[in-house]
User: Which sequence fits this backbone?
Protein backbone atom coordinates (compact mmCIF):
# COMPACT_ATOMS: atom_id res chain seq x y z
CA UNK A 1 0.00 0.00 0.00
CA UNK A 2 2.83 2.35 0.95
CA UNK A 3 4.60 1.52 -2.30
CA UNK A 4 1.45 2.38 -4.29
CA UNK A 5 1.22 5.70 -2.48
CA UNK A 6 4.83 6.47 -3.38
CA UNK A 7 4.28 5.65 -7.05
CA UNK A 8 1.07 7.67 -7.10
CA UNK A 9 2.98 10.63 -5.63
CA UNK A 10 5.74 10.20 -8.20
CA UNK A 11 3.20 9.97 -10.99
CA UNK A 12 1.04 12.89 -9.92
CA UNK A 13 3.68 15.30 -8.64
CA UNK A 14 6.24 14.26 -11.26
CA UNK A 15 3.76 14.97 -14.05
CA UNK A 16 2.69 18.27 -12.53
CA UNK A 17 6.33 19.31 -12.04
CA UNK A 18 7.27 18.33 -15.59
CA UNK A 19 4.32 20.25 -17.01
CA UNK A 20 5.33 23.28 -14.94
CA UNK A 21 8.98 23.16 -16.06
CA UNK A 22 8.17 22.69 -19.77
CA UNK A 23 5.46 25.35 -19.64
CA UNK A 24 7.67 27.84 -17.78
CA UNK A 25 10.58 27.17 -20.13
CA UNK A 26 8.52 28.18 -23.17
CA UNK A 27 6.77 30.98 -21.27
CA UNK A 28 10.17 32.51 -20.47
CA UNK A 29 11.81 32.16 -23.87
CA UNK A 30 11.97 35.17 -26.19
CA UNK A 31 9.25 35.26 -28.88
CA UNK A 32 9.41 32.16 -31.07
CA UNK A 33 6.93 30.14 -33.20
CA UNK A 34 6.16 27.56 -30.46
CA UNK A 35 5.53 30.28 -27.90
CA UNK A 36 3.28 32.08 -30.36
CA UNK A 37 1.27 28.94 -31.00
CA UNK A 38 0.91 27.91 -27.34
CA UNK A 39 0.76 31.34 -25.71
CA UNK A 40 -2.84 31.14 -24.38
CA UNK A 41 -2.03 27.85 -22.58
CA UNK A 42 1.40 29.03 -21.40
CA UNK A 43 -0.14 32.20 -19.99
CA UNK A 44 -3.10 30.45 -18.36
CA UNK A 45 -0.86 28.00 -16.49
CA UNK A 46 1.51 30.68 -15.19
CA UNK A 47 -0.99 33.31 -14.07
CA UNK A 48 -1.51 34.56 -11.48
CA UNK A 49 0.51 32.50 -8.97
CA UNK A 50 3.54 31.67 -11.13
CA UNK A 51 3.58 34.94 -13.09
CA UNK A 52 7.18 35.94 -13.74
CA UNK A 53 9.26 38.27 -15.82
CA UNK A 54 13.04 38.08 -15.99
CA UNK A 55 13.80 40.82 -18.46
CA UNK A 56 16.07 42.37 -15.78
CA UNK A 57 17.76 45.15 -17.79
CA UNK A 58 17.07 43.19 -20.99
CA UNK A 59 16.90 43.24 -23.94
CA UNK A 60 18.25 46.76 -23.33
CA UNK A 61 18.59 48.59 -20.02
CA UNK A 62 16.98 51.94 -19.32
CA UNK A 63 19.23 54.79 -20.42
CA UNK A 64 17.23 57.65 -18.95
CA UNK A 65 16.79 59.21 -15.52
CA UNK A 66 13.16 60.02 -14.78
CA UNK A 67 12.93 62.86 -12.28
CA UNK A 68 9.68 64.01 -10.76
CA UNK A 69 9.17 67.66 -9.81
CA UNK A 70 6.03 69.04 -8.24
CA UNK A 71 4.53 72.36 -7.31
CA UNK A 72 1.57 73.15 -5.10
CA UNK A 73 -1.16 75.71 -5.47
CA UNK A 74 -2.26 77.16 -2.16
CA UNK A 75 -5.21 79.51 -1.68
CA UNK A 76 -2.96 82.55 -2.12
CA UNK A 77 0.17 81.46 -3.99
CA UNK A 78 1.96 78.83 -6.06
CA UNK A 79 5.17 77.25 -4.78
CA UNK A 80 8.29 76.94 -6.97
CA UNK A 81 9.07 73.57 -8.59
CA UNK A 82 10.31 71.11 -5.99
CA UNK A 83 12.07 67.73 -6.45
CA UNK A 84 11.01 65.56 -3.47
CA UNK A 85 12.75 62.34 -4.50
CA UNK A 86 16.37 63.27 -5.22
CA UNK A 87 17.12 63.67 -1.47
CA UNK A 88 15.59 60.22 -0.87
CA UNK A 89 17.72 58.78 -3.67
CA UNK A 90 20.82 60.35 -2.10
CA UNK A 91 19.88 58.72 1.22
CA UNK A 92 19.51 55.37 -0.56
CA UNK A 93 22.91 55.80 -2.20
CA UNK A 94 24.54 56.65 1.14
CA UNK A 95 23.02 53.68 2.92
CA UNK A 96 21.75 50.61 1.08
CA UNK A 97 19.82 49.38 4.12
CA UNK A 98 17.01 51.94 4.11
CA UNK A 99 13.39 51.62 2.92
CA UNK A 100 14.10 54.23 0.21
CA UNK A 101 14.75 51.51 -2.36
CA UNK A 102 11.05 50.60 -2.29
CA UNK A 103 9.74 54.13 -1.70
CA UNK A 104 11.58 55.31 -4.82
CA UNK A 105 10.13 52.57 -6.99
CA UNK A 106 6.65 54.12 -6.77
CA UNK A 107 7.42 57.40 -8.60
CA UNK A 108 9.52 55.49 -11.15
CA UNK A 109 6.72 53.02 -11.88
CA UNK A 110 4.08 55.77 -11.83
CA UNK A 111 6.06 57.65 -14.49
CA UNK A 112 6.47 54.48 -16.57
CA UNK A 113 2.74 53.83 -16.34
CA UNK A 114 1.88 57.41 -17.27
CA UNK A 115 4.25 57.38 -20.24
CA UNK A 116 2.53 54.20 -21.46
CA UNK A 117 5.65 52.06 -21.22
CA UNK A 118 4.70 48.70 -22.67
CA UNK A 119 6.68 45.57 -21.79
CA UNK A 120 4.70 43.37 -24.18
CA UNK A 121 7.44 41.63 -26.15
CA UNK A 122 5.08 40.86 -29.04
CA UNK A 123 4.14 44.45 -29.70
CA UNK A 124 7.34 45.57 -31.49
CA UNK A 125 7.04 42.52 -33.77
CA UNK A 126 3.39 43.23 -34.48
CA UNK A 127 3.98 46.92 -35.07
CA UNK A 128 6.62 46.16 -37.69
CA UNK A 129 3.82 44.75 -39.84
CA UNK A 130 0.80 46.79 -38.76
CA UNK A 131 1.91 50.27 -37.81
CA UNK A 132 -1.60 51.69 -37.75
CA UNK A 133 -2.81 49.55 -34.86
CA UNK A 134 -4.08 51.55 -31.87
CA UNK A 135 -1.72 49.66 -29.53
CA UNK A 136 1.25 50.64 -31.73
CA UNK A 137 0.29 54.28 -31.24
CA UNK A 138 -0.34 53.79 -27.52
CA UNK A 139 -4.03 54.55 -27.94
CA UNK A 140 -5.54 51.17 -27.11
CA UNK A 141 -7.75 50.55 -24.06
CA UNK A 142 -5.07 48.76 -22.00
CA UNK A 143 -2.49 51.52 -22.48
CA UNK A 144 -5.12 54.17 -21.78
CA UNK A 145 -6.03 52.47 -18.50
CA UNK A 146 -2.36 52.20 -17.60
CA UNK A 147 -1.79 55.89 -18.31
CA UNK A 148 -4.81 56.83 -16.19
CA UNK A 149 -3.44 54.76 -13.34
CA UNK A 150 -0.06 56.44 -13.72
CA UNK A 151 -1.74 59.86 -13.66
CA UNK A 152 -3.69 58.91 -10.53
CA UNK A 153 -0.51 57.77 -8.75
CA UNK A 154 1.38 60.91 -9.76
CA UNK A 155 -1.50 62.97 -8.36
CA UNK A 156 -1.25 61.15 -5.03
CA UNK A 157 2.53 61.29 -4.95
CA UNK A 158 2.52 65.02 -5.58
CA UNK A 159 -0.20 65.53 -2.95
CA UNK A 160 1.95 63.70 -0.38
CA UNK A 161 4.95 65.80 -1.41
CA UNK A 162 2.90 69.01 -1.06
CA UNK A 163 1.89 67.97 2.44
CA UNK A 164 5.57 67.62 3.21
CA UNK A 165 6.42 70.97 1.61
CA UNK A 166 3.64 73.31 2.77
CA UNK A 167 1.90 71.37 5.52
CA UNK A 168 -0.80 68.70 5.49
CA UNK A 169 -3.98 69.72 3.67
CA UNK A 170 -2.70 73.22 2.77
CA UNK A 171 -2.55 72.68 -0.99
CA UNK A 172 -5.68 72.92 -3.12
CA UNK A 173 -4.13 71.67 -6.35
CA UNK A 174 -0.92 69.98 -7.43
CA UNK A 175 1.09 69.89 -10.63
CA UNK A 176 3.71 67.43 -11.87
CA UNK A 177 6.63 67.88 -14.20
CA UNK A 178 8.57 64.86 -15.46
CA UNK A 179 12.19 65.49 -16.41
CA UNK A 180 13.79 62.97 -18.76
CA UNK A 181 17.53 63.20 -18.44
CA UNK A 182 19.82 61.22 -20.75
CA UNK A 183 23.36 60.91 -19.39
CA UNK A 184 26.26 61.35 -21.84
CA UNK A 185 26.92 58.43 -24.20
CA UNK A 186 29.87 56.12 -23.55
CA UNK A 187 32.07 58.11 -25.95
CA UNK A 188 31.77 60.97 -23.43
CA UNK A 189 32.08 58.78 -20.34
CA UNK A 190 34.43 61.20 -18.55
CA UNK A 191 31.82 63.97 -18.56
CA UNK A 192 29.57 64.43 -15.54
CA UNK A 193 25.88 63.47 -15.66
CA UNK A 194 24.85 67.11 -16.08
CA UNK A 195 26.48 67.09 -19.52
CA UNK A 196 23.67 64.91 -20.85
CA UNK A 197 20.47 66.21 -22.40
CA UNK A 198 17.25 66.97 -20.53
CA UNK A 199 13.69 67.36 -21.73
CA UNK A 200 10.57 67.71 -19.66
CA UNK A 201 6.85 67.20 -19.76
CA UNK A 202 4.46 69.28 -17.65
CA UNK A 203 1.10 67.80 -16.67
CA UNK A 204 -2.00 69.91 -16.02
CA UNK A 205 -3.00 70.96 -12.49
CA UNK A 206 -5.00 68.32 -10.63
CA UNK A 207 -6.94 68.59 -7.35
CA UNK A 208 -5.09 67.81 -4.11
CA UNK A 209 -5.82 64.37 -2.53
CA UNK A 210 -5.11 63.56 1.14
CA UNK A 211 -2.43 60.86 1.45
CA UNK A 212 -0.51 59.63 4.54
CA UNK A 213 2.92 61.30 4.80
CA UNK A 214 6.02 59.50 3.49
CA UNK B 1 17.15 0.66 -12.18
CA UNK B 2 13.57 1.20 -10.94
CA UNK B 3 14.55 0.17 -7.42
CA UNK B 4 17.54 2.53 -7.42
CA UNK B 5 15.38 5.37 -8.71
CA UNK B 6 12.77 4.65 -6.05
CA UNK B 7 15.43 4.45 -3.36
CA UNK B 8 16.86 7.81 -4.46
CA UNK B 9 13.41 9.39 -4.56
CA UNK B 10 12.39 8.13 -1.14
CA UNK B 11 15.50 9.51 0.55
CA UNK B 12 15.35 13.19 1.38
CA UNK B 13 18.15 15.10 -0.35
CA UNK B 14 19.23 18.74 0.11
CA UNK B 15 17.90 18.79 3.69
CA UNK B 16 20.58 21.20 4.91
CA UNK B 17 20.16 23.49 1.90
CA UNK B 18 16.37 23.50 2.40
CA UNK B 19 16.80 24.50 6.05
CA UNK B 20 19.22 27.29 5.13
CA UNK B 21 16.86 28.49 2.41
CA UNK B 22 13.98 28.66 4.91
CA UNK B 23 16.05 30.62 7.43
CA UNK B 24 17.41 33.01 4.82
CA UNK B 25 13.99 33.79 3.32
CA UNK B 26 12.54 34.11 6.82
CA UNK B 27 15.23 36.56 7.93
CA UNK B 28 14.68 38.41 4.65
CA UNK B 29 10.99 38.78 5.46
CA UNK B 30 11.60 39.90 9.06
CA UNK B 31 14.14 42.44 7.80
CA UNK B 32 11.77 43.60 5.05
CA UNK B 33 8.77 44.05 7.35
CA UNK B 34 10.71 45.82 10.08
CA UNK B 35 12.64 48.01 7.63
CA UNK B 36 9.37 49.26 6.12
CA UNK B 37 7.50 49.41 9.44
CA UNK B 38 7.52 53.25 9.60
CA UNK B 39 6.30 53.44 5.99
CA UNK B 40 3.75 50.62 6.09
CA UNK B 41 0.66 52.85 6.02
CA UNK B 42 2.04 54.83 3.09
CA UNK B 43 3.14 51.78 1.08
CA UNK B 44 0.35 49.28 1.80
CA UNK B 45 -2.23 50.94 4.08
CA UNK B 46 -5.93 51.37 3.20
CA UNK B 47 -5.44 55.12 2.73
CA UNK B 48 -1.90 54.77 1.40
CA UNK B 49 -0.48 55.64 -1.97
CA UNK B 50 -2.70 52.98 -3.57
CA UNK B 51 -5.96 53.48 -1.66
CA UNK B 52 -8.19 50.54 -0.79
CA UNK B 53 -10.81 51.32 -3.45
CA UNK B 54 -8.18 51.48 -6.20
CA UNK B 55 -6.60 48.25 -4.99
CA UNK B 56 -9.94 46.42 -5.02
CA UNK B 57 -10.56 47.74 -8.53
CA UNK B 58 -7.15 46.45 -9.75
CA UNK B 59 -7.01 43.22 -7.75
CA UNK B 60 -8.25 40.07 -9.43
CA UNK B 61 -7.11 37.31 -7.06
CA UNK B 62 -7.42 36.25 -3.43
CA UNK B 63 -5.71 38.71 -1.09
CA UNK B 64 -5.82 39.14 2.67
CA UNK B 65 -5.83 42.94 2.31
CA UNK B 66 -8.96 42.86 0.16
CA UNK B 67 -11.09 41.58 3.05
CA UNK B 68 -11.33 44.84 4.99
CA UNK B 69 -10.53 48.52 4.57
CA UNK B 70 -10.09 49.04 8.30
CA UNK B 71 -6.76 50.44 9.50
CA UNK B 72 -6.86 48.22 12.58
CA UNK B 73 -7.30 45.18 10.36
CA UNK B 74 -4.35 46.30 8.21
CA UNK B 75 -2.15 46.79 11.28
CA UNK B 76 -3.16 43.36 12.62
CA UNK B 77 -2.29 41.67 9.33
CA UNK B 78 1.06 43.47 9.14
CA UNK B 79 1.92 42.48 12.71
CA UNK B 80 0.81 38.90 12.02
CA UNK B 81 3.08 38.85 8.97
CA UNK B 82 6.05 39.82 11.16
CA UNK B 83 5.21 37.07 13.66
CA UNK B 84 4.77 34.48 10.91
CA UNK B 85 8.13 35.50 9.41
CA UNK B 86 9.78 34.99 12.82
CA UNK B 87 8.16 31.53 13.02
CA UNK B 88 9.60 30.75 9.59
CA UNK B 89 13.07 31.72 10.82
CA UNK B 90 12.91 29.51 13.91
CA UNK B 91 11.29 26.69 11.95
CA UNK B 92 8.12 26.38 14.00
CA UNK B 93 5.80 23.89 12.24
CA UNK B 94 7.34 24.79 8.89
CA UNK B 95 4.95 22.75 6.75
CA UNK B 96 2.03 24.73 8.19
CA UNK B 97 3.68 28.13 8.56
CA UNK B 98 5.32 28.39 5.12
CA UNK B 99 1.99 28.37 3.18
CA UNK B 100 0.69 31.10 5.52
CA UNK B 101 3.91 33.04 5.04
CA UNK B 102 3.62 32.68 1.27
CA UNK B 103 0.04 33.96 1.34
CA UNK B 104 1.01 37.02 3.38
CA UNK B 105 3.97 37.81 1.12
CA UNK B 106 1.78 37.31 -1.94
CA UNK B 107 -0.90 39.60 -0.50
CA UNK B 108 1.67 42.26 0.37
CA UNK B 109 3.19 42.21 -3.12
CA UNK B 110 -0.20 42.34 -4.81
CA UNK B 111 -1.44 45.06 -2.45
CA UNK B 112 1.02 47.48 -4.02
CA UNK B 113 2.30 46.12 -7.35
CA UNK B 114 4.36 49.26 -7.95
CA UNK B 115 7.04 48.18 -5.47
CA UNK B 116 8.12 44.79 -6.75
CA UNK B 117 11.40 43.73 -8.30
CA UNK B 118 12.82 40.46 -9.59
CA UNK B 119 13.79 39.40 -6.08
CA UNK B 120 10.19 39.63 -4.88
CA UNK B 121 9.07 37.69 -7.93
CA UNK B 122 11.46 34.77 -7.44
CA UNK B 123 10.77 34.68 -3.71
CA UNK B 124 7.06 34.22 -4.00
CA UNK B 125 7.47 31.39 -6.52
CA UNK B 126 10.13 29.69 -4.39
CA UNK B 127 7.93 29.98 -1.28
CA UNK B 128 5.15 28.27 -3.17
CA UNK B 129 7.44 25.32 -3.98
CA UNK B 130 8.80 25.37 -0.45
CA UNK B 131 5.37 24.19 0.69
CA UNK B 132 6.38 20.80 -0.72
CA UNK B 133 9.78 20.76 0.96
CA UNK B 134 10.81 19.55 4.40
CA UNK B 135 12.67 22.62 5.63
CA UNK B 136 12.68 21.62 9.28
CA UNK B 137 15.63 19.21 9.29
CA UNK B 138 18.09 21.77 10.58
CA UNK B 139 17.97 25.06 12.50
CA UNK B 140 14.40 24.35 13.46
CA UNK B 141 12.62 24.24 16.81
CA UNK B 142 10.27 21.72 15.26
CA UNK B 143 13.16 19.30 14.70
CA UNK B 144 12.93 18.33 18.36
CA UNK B 145 9.34 17.18 17.87
CA UNK B 146 9.97 15.24 14.71
CA UNK B 147 10.44 11.92 16.55
CA UNK B 148 6.88 11.92 17.84
CA UNK B 149 5.61 13.02 14.44
CA UNK B 150 7.64 10.28 12.83
CA UNK B 151 5.45 7.63 14.40
CA UNK B 152 2.17 9.14 13.19
CA UNK B 153 3.57 9.98 9.75
CA UNK B 154 5.49 6.73 9.24
CA UNK B 155 3.05 5.55 6.59
CA UNK B 156 3.20 8.83 4.69
CA UNK B 157 6.94 9.38 5.12
CA UNK B 158 8.18 7.89 1.80
CA UNK B 159 5.57 9.89 -0.13
CA UNK B 160 6.56 13.05 1.78
CA UNK B 161 10.20 12.38 0.94
CA UNK B 162 9.31 12.15 -2.76
CA UNK B 163 7.38 15.41 -2.42
CA UNK B 164 10.39 17.05 -0.75
CA UNK B 165 12.78 16.02 -3.52
CA UNK B 166 10.44 17.15 -6.28
CA UNK B 167 9.93 20.49 -4.49
CA UNK B 168 13.67 21.07 -4.30
CA UNK B 169 14.18 20.11 -7.95
CA UNK B 170 11.45 22.57 -8.92
CA UNK B 171 13.20 25.39 -7.05
CA UNK B 172 16.53 24.61 -8.73
CA UNK B 173 14.81 24.36 -12.12
CA UNK B 174 13.13 27.72 -11.47
CA UNK B 175 16.49 29.34 -10.71
CA UNK B 176 18.00 27.88 -13.90
CA UNK B 177 15.06 29.05 -16.01
CA UNK B 178 15.31 32.53 -14.52
CA UNK B 179 18.97 32.85 -15.52
CA UNK B 180 18.31 31.26 -18.90
CA UNK B 181 15.48 33.68 -19.65
CA UNK B 182 17.28 36.85 -18.66
CA UNK B 183 20.44 35.64 -20.42
CA UNK B 184 18.61 34.96 -23.69
CA UNK B 185 16.86 38.34 -23.60
CA UNK B 186 20.18 40.07 -22.95
CA UNK B 187 21.79 38.31 -25.91
CA UNK B 188 19.11 39.94 -28.07
CA UNK B 189 19.85 43.44 -26.76
CA UNK B 190 22.09 45.78 -28.75
CA UNK B 191 23.77 47.26 -25.67
CA UNK B 192 24.55 43.81 -24.28
CA UNK B 193 25.94 42.77 -27.65
CA UNK B 194 28.23 45.77 -28.02
CA UNK B 195 29.41 45.52 -24.40
CA UNK B 196 28.13 48.90 -23.17
CA UNK B 197 25.05 47.89 -21.14
CA UNK B 198 26.85 48.18 -17.80
CA UNK B 199 27.88 51.76 -18.63
CA UNK B 200 24.30 52.88 -19.23
CA UNK B 201 22.94 51.04 -16.18
CA UNK B 202 25.47 52.67 -13.89
CA UNK B 203 24.70 56.08 -15.38
CA UNK B 204 21.07 55.83 -14.26
CA UNK B 205 20.87 57.40 -10.78
CA UNK B 206 18.54 54.73 -9.40
CA UNK B 207 21.15 52.01 -10.01
CA UNK B 208 24.26 54.01 -9.39
CA UNK B 209 26.58 54.40 -6.43
CA UNK B 210 28.39 57.73 -6.53
CA UNK B 211 32.10 57.34 -5.87
CA UNK B 212 32.23 53.73 -7.02
CA UNK B 213 30.16 53.69 -10.20
CA UNK B 214 32.41 56.33 -11.83
CA UNK B 215 35.42 54.10 -11.30
CA UNK B 216 33.68 51.30 -13.20
CA UNK B 217 31.92 53.19 -15.99
CA UNK B 218 34.93 55.36 -16.91
CA UNK B 219 37.01 52.23 -17.49
CA UNK B 220 35.97 50.67 -20.79
CA UNK B 221 37.71 47.40 -19.95
CA UNK B 222 35.61 46.98 -16.79
CA UNK B 223 32.42 47.99 -18.63
CA UNK B 224 32.88 45.54 -21.51
CA UNK B 225 34.18 42.71 -19.30
CA UNK B 226 31.35 43.22 -16.78
CA UNK B 227 28.71 43.31 -19.52
CA UNK B 228 29.91 40.15 -21.27
CA UNK B 229 30.62 38.31 -18.01
CA UNK B 230 27.01 38.93 -16.92
CA UNK B 231 25.60 37.44 -20.11
CA UNK B 232 28.04 34.53 -20.06
CA UNK B 233 27.23 33.73 -16.43
CA UNK B 234 23.47 33.78 -17.00
CA UNK B 235 23.49 31.74 -20.19
CA UNK B 236 25.87 29.07 -18.88
CA UNK B 237 24.46 28.80 -15.36
CA UNK B 238 22.08 25.86 -15.93
CA UNK B 239 24.43 23.53 -17.86
CA UNK B 240 27.25 24.31 -15.42
CA UNK B 241 25.30 22.72 -12.58
CA UNK B 242 25.76 19.31 -14.19
CA UNK B 243 29.45 19.16 -13.26
CA UNK B 244 30.62 19.41 -9.66
CA UNK B 245 33.54 21.79 -10.26
CA UNK B 246 31.69 24.09 -12.66
CA UNK B 247 28.85 24.10 -10.13
CA UNK B 248 31.24 25.38 -7.46
CA UNK B 249 32.49 27.97 -9.95
CA UNK B 250 28.92 29.12 -10.62
CA UNK B 251 28.16 29.36 -6.90
CA UNK B 252 31.24 31.54 -6.39
CA UNK B 253 30.57 33.63 -9.52
CA UNK B 254 26.87 34.04 -8.69
CA UNK B 255 27.60 35.08 -5.11
CA UNK B 256 30.10 37.70 -6.32
CA UNK B 257 27.67 38.83 -9.03
CA UNK B 258 24.69 39.31 -6.70
CA UNK B 259 26.71 40.87 -3.89
CA UNK B 260 28.14 43.28 -6.46
CA UNK B 261 24.64 44.16 -7.70
CA UNK B 262 23.47 44.66 -4.11
CA UNK B 263 26.33 46.99 -3.25
CA UNK B 264 26.82 48.95 -6.48
CA UNK B 265 23.26 49.04 -7.80
CA UNK B 266 21.55 49.11 -4.41
CA UNK B 267 19.34 46.07 -5.10
CA UNK B 268 19.94 44.46 -1.71
CA UNK B 269 16.71 42.50 -1.27
CA UNK B 270 16.90 41.30 -4.89
CA UNK B 271 20.34 39.78 -4.34
CA UNK B 272 19.29 38.38 -0.97
CA UNK B 273 16.26 36.58 -2.45
CA UNK B 274 18.29 34.94 -5.18
CA UNK B 275 21.30 34.08 -3.02
CA UNK B 276 18.90 32.42 -0.55
CA UNK B 277 18.36 29.69 -3.15
CA UNK B 278 22.09 29.01 -3.54
CA UNK B 279 22.35 26.71 -0.47
CA UNK B 280 20.29 24.20 -2.49
CA UNK B 281 23.11 23.98 -5.02
CA UNK B 282 25.24 22.17 -2.44
CA UNK B 283 24.41 18.58 -1.49
CA UNK B 284 24.06 17.32 2.09
CA UNK B 285 27.16 15.19 1.62
CA UNK B 286 29.17 18.25 0.61
CA UNK B 287 27.93 20.21 3.61
CA UNK B 288 28.79 17.29 5.88
CA UNK B 289 32.24 17.03 4.30
CA UNK B 290 32.93 20.72 4.93
CA UNK B 291 31.55 20.44 8.48
CA UNK B 292 33.77 17.42 9.19
CA UNK B 293 36.80 19.27 7.84
CA UNK B 294 36.03 22.32 10.00
CA UNK B 295 35.43 20.06 13.00
CA UNK B 296 38.72 18.27 12.46
CA UNK B 297 40.59 21.57 12.32
CA UNK B 298 38.68 23.40 15.05
CA UNK B 299 37.93 20.66 17.52
CA UNK B 300 38.82 21.53 21.09
CA UNK B 301 39.10 19.21 24.06
CA UNK B 302 38.56 21.03 27.34
CA UNK B 303 39.67 19.45 30.61
CA UNK B 304 37.78 20.77 33.63
CA UNK B 305 37.45 19.98 37.30
CA UNK B 306 34.38 17.77 37.75
CA UNK B 307 34.72 17.84 41.55
CA UNK B 308 33.89 21.55 41.55
CA UNK B 309 30.14 22.23 41.46
CA UNK B 310 30.70 25.73 40.08
CA UNK B 311 32.91 24.38 37.25
CA UNK B 312 30.44 21.60 36.40
CA UNK B 313 27.55 24.07 36.19
CA UNK B 314 29.56 26.51 34.06
CA UNK B 315 30.52 23.67 31.72
CA UNK B 316 26.88 22.63 31.43
CA UNK B 317 25.97 26.17 30.38
CA UNK B 318 28.83 26.37 27.89
CA UNK B 319 27.93 22.96 26.50
CA UNK B 320 24.37 24.15 25.93
CA UNK B 321 25.79 26.98 23.84
CA UNK B 322 28.07 24.54 22.00
CA UNK B 323 25.71 24.33 19.02
CA UNK B 324 28.39 23.43 16.50
CA UNK B 325 29.70 20.62 18.73
CA UNK B 326 33.23 21.85 18.23
CA UNK B 327 34.09 21.67 21.92
CA UNK B 328 34.29 18.47 23.94
CA UNK B 329 34.25 18.89 27.71
CA UNK B 330 36.06 16.13 29.61
CA UNK B 331 36.69 15.97 33.39
CA UNK B 332 40.42 15.85 34.04
CA UNK B 333 39.64 13.17 36.63
CA UNK B 334 38.83 10.79 33.76
CA UNK B 335 41.28 7.92 33.90
CA UNK B 336 44.39 8.38 31.71
CA UNK B 337 43.26 11.64 30.10
CA UNK B 338 46.02 13.80 31.61
CA UNK B 339 48.67 11.22 30.68
CA UNK B 340 47.27 11.10 27.15
CA UNK B 341 47.80 14.83 26.71
CA UNK B 342 50.96 14.98 28.93
CA UNK B 343 49.41 17.56 31.25
CA UNK B 344 50.60 17.58 34.89
CA UNK B 345 47.82 17.09 37.47
CA UNK B 346 48.85 20.24 39.33
CA UNK B 347 48.34 22.37 36.23
CA UNK B 348 44.94 20.81 35.50
CA UNK B 349 43.88 21.55 39.07
CA UNK B 350 45.05 25.11 38.80
CA UNK B 351 43.39 26.14 35.54
CA UNK B 352 41.06 24.71 32.93
CA UNK B 353 43.13 23.16 30.10
CA UNK B 354 42.31 22.99 26.39
CA UNK B 355 43.91 20.97 23.63
CA UNK B 356 43.60 21.67 19.88
CA UNK B 357 43.85 18.89 17.22
CA UNK B 358 47.55 19.69 16.58
CA UNK B 359 48.32 19.08 20.29
CA UNK B 360 48.76 22.71 21.35
CA UNK B 361 47.80 23.13 25.00
CA UNK B 362 46.30 26.32 26.39
CA UNK B 363 44.80 27.18 29.75
CA UNK B 364 42.74 29.64 31.75
CA UNK B 365 41.67 32.77 29.87
CA UNK B 366 43.01 31.44 26.56
CA UNK B 367 40.93 28.29 26.90
CA UNK B 368 37.91 30.42 27.72
CA UNK B 369 38.49 32.50 24.58
CA UNK B 370 38.89 29.34 22.50
CA UNK B 371 35.57 28.00 23.80
CA UNK B 372 33.77 31.29 23.10
CA UNK B 373 35.19 31.51 19.58
CA UNK B 374 33.81 28.05 18.74
CA UNK B 375 30.28 28.73 20.06
CA UNK B 376 28.38 31.42 18.10
CA UNK B 377 26.07 32.02 21.08
CA UNK B 378 29.12 32.99 23.16
CA UNK B 379 30.63 35.32 20.57
CA UNK B 380 29.29 38.41 22.39
CA UNK B 381 31.50 37.43 25.37
CA UNK B 382 34.63 37.11 23.26
CA UNK B 383 35.68 40.79 23.38
CA UNK B 384 35.27 40.79 27.17
CA UNK B 385 37.40 37.66 27.52
CA UNK B 386 40.13 39.08 25.30
CA UNK B 387 40.10 42.46 27.06
CA UNK B 388 40.27 40.64 30.41
CA UNK B 389 43.22 38.60 29.18
CA UNK B 390 45.08 41.66 27.85
CA UNK B 391 44.49 43.72 31.00
CA UNK B 392 44.88 41.11 33.70
CA UNK B 393 46.47 38.04 32.07
CA UNK B 394 45.47 34.95 34.05
CA UNK B 395 45.13 36.87 37.33
CA UNK B 396 41.40 37.47 36.93
CA UNK B 397 40.88 33.82 36.03
CA UNK B 398 43.00 32.62 38.97
CA UNK B 399 41.08 34.88 41.34
CA UNK B 400 37.91 32.96 40.52
CA UNK B 401 39.58 29.57 40.03
CA UNK B 402 41.22 29.46 43.44
CA UNK B 403 37.88 30.16 45.08
CA UNK B 404 35.86 27.88 42.87
CA UNK B 405 34.97 25.47 45.67
CA UNK B 406 33.59 28.35 47.73
CA UNK B 407 30.90 29.06 45.14
CA UNK B 408 27.86 26.82 45.45
CA UNK B 409 29.25 25.48 48.78
CA UNK B 410 32.56 23.99 49.93
CA UNK B 411 36.03 25.21 50.92
CA UNK B 412 39.10 26.12 48.83
CA UNK B 413 41.51 23.20 48.55
CA UNK B 414 43.61 24.84 45.85
CA UNK B 415 47.07 25.18 47.23
CA UNK B 416 48.32 28.79 47.42
CA UNK B 417 51.41 28.15 45.28
CA UNK B 418 49.12 27.22 42.37
CA UNK B 419 47.22 30.44 42.71
CA UNK B 420 50.45 32.40 42.72
CA UNK B 421 51.83 30.55 39.74
CA UNK B 422 52.25 33.06 36.91
CA UNK B 423 53.69 30.61 34.43
CA UNK B 424 51.95 30.72 31.09
CA UNK B 425 51.77 27.77 28.82
CA UNK B 426 50.52 29.89 25.98
Assistant:
Amino acid sequence: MQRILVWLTVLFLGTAASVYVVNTFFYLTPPNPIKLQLYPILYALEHPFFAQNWHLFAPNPIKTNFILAIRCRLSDRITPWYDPYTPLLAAHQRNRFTPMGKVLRIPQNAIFAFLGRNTDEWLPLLCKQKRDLLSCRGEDVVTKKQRDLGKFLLQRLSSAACDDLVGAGQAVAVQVRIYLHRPPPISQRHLPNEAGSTTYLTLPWTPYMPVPPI
Amino acid sequence: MGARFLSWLTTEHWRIGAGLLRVSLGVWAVYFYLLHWPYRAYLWGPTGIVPFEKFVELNDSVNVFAWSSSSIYFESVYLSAVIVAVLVVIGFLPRLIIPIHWFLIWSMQERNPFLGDGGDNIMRIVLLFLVLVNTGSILSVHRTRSRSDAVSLAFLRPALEVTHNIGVLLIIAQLCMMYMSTGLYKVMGELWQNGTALYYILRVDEFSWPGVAEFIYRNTFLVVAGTYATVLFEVTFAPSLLNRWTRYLMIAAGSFFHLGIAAVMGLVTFGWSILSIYPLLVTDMEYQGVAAWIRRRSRLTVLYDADCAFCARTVRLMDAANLLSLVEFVPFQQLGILTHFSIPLARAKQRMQSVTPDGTIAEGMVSLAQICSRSPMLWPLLPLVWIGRILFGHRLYDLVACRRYLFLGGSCPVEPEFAENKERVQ
